[in-house]
Amino acid sequence: MQLDKRMLERLLGMSDEQLERVIRQIAQESGIPAQQLGLDPSSIQSIRLALGMASEEDLERLGEIYQQYLRGRRGR
Fold first, then answer.
1. Domain that holds residue 61
2. pTM for the full predicted model
């Protein structure tokens, strides 16, 4: 998944329920058990706040970290 400002705006435009579904889907596709996420309404709001404050550099770094994570999972 490429996270850029356009995608970020789409995510921020979603309802809390929609955003939570997207987060859970990404976690599932990444092999992260849903119960480890600990998502609740306040955590969704915290995620939304953090995403809203993210710069282009933050998004690029997040993408790099996610790609490293995926490469590490494939190497197991």
1. 5-74
2. 0.76
